[in-house]
Protein 1
Amino acid sequence: MVILVVANGRTRRYTVRTLLENSQTNQKENTDMKRFNPETKTFKVFNALYNGKTLTPAQAKHDLGVGNLAAEVSRIRQNGYAIYANSRKAGNGVQVTEYVMGKPSREIVALGYKAKAMGITL
């Protein structure tokens, strides 16, 4: 599949594979954590998720001192990171939400490039 992107009066052709490779390269460049102040709770949550940890609100409160994990996750998502919320039932029957950092699907990456080409920005 070929996607045509028109930007600044120039038309470029991309294959889905090229878009995915560019996406992965950009993700590696953006992981320098410059987007978050290291002294904030958002950074603590980002660092834990980035290092592969799964967080529940109770774990975040106990381990990181973060009372509102959903708000911190929202801030991280607004900076372009894919954070997934998975619901499960705990051993005592309580519904628990676990947050994990993941990789966006191919569709989402392609839609992002298409929106950018159309001039849609946040």
Protein 2
Amino acid sequence: MSISTEKESDTFMNSNNSIAVKIAVAFLATAILICGAFGIGASTTEASAGTIDGSIIVQSAQMEMEEYQSKGMSGGDKYRKWLTGRADGASWCATWVSYVLVTRVGLSESSFHKTGSCQEMYDDFRNGKSLGQIHDKKYVPSPGDIIFFDYKNEGETHHVGIVTEADNTSIRYISGNSGSRPGTCRKSSIATGSSKIYGFATLSYSQQSGVTLAGGAKNAEKVYYTLLANGWTKQSASGVIGNLLWETGGANSKNPTNISGDINPADKSATRHAGKYAYGIVQWDEGESPDRTSKMFQYCASRGKDWTDLESQVSYMLNEMATFSKVKKNGGIQKWKSMTSPEESAKFDADNYEICAQKLRPKRQITARAWYEAYKDK
């Protein structure tokens, strides 16, 4: 089976302990992740008083840091230009946090007010311009919280980052404009309760955070109708289904117009990496992309579900699609969702998200067209 091959992290699972790691990750995720509220119905759920899943914020921050470092970037002109249109030399730690939360996590202006000022960012949480809860320096944060610093004990904040891990001893975080000028993006740590901490903010949301499945006679129909309910055109949704049927054996290799097969969220397939497997509807491959696979397991566990749960996999897939680097680089999720050709959508999916073998991509387009013709009037 074809599998996604893009690596989004340098974190790798140890093959001898992969099962134990997954079990530990699942329990850890259940214990520490802050889960968003999930509503009823087929559309993406929203709530005005829910906390955002911290793992999504951490994943987004890590992805941005890895992209920054892999490209050998220095300084913050990328983020300054995004915020103000100018490379004006301004401090960019708050701008970096804003960039991650808006462009990678997908927070709307109604949830988070982007700014290049650390103090304004903190005050926005205090006055309600950004949704969230502020905490004093004695607070032990959770992954995904925002940490504010007051290095000189001046009573104001002048550095900010995103917490990745924390306990009663230390806090690990990622920040931009770190170190000597022109600054870089990197991981750092500070003692819990340090006098150099100004405070924290836990983000709340009015944003897309998960889905509940639409009805359907089989899994492929449930996913298809869920995509439609979340703003995908029939053509673009058909392109996704055309790929997913091939991922878990629901397509017919001899007759790609045959769509009688189904999507299998419990599929676990051996890969070319010894002792490694690909899981679920997307075939998240722990050999090629261990970090993506691990985060899929974590996300399912954070909802109190096994990794085989279709609804959880679809929720995670949609979030991953929206933040995936190749998708963003080649037009973004809105371009994909609005496509008017099942073949175009299937090709975009295979090229930028599934990253499957070249020889399989034309067949996926045929399957996508067959699905569209069968369901366009339903």
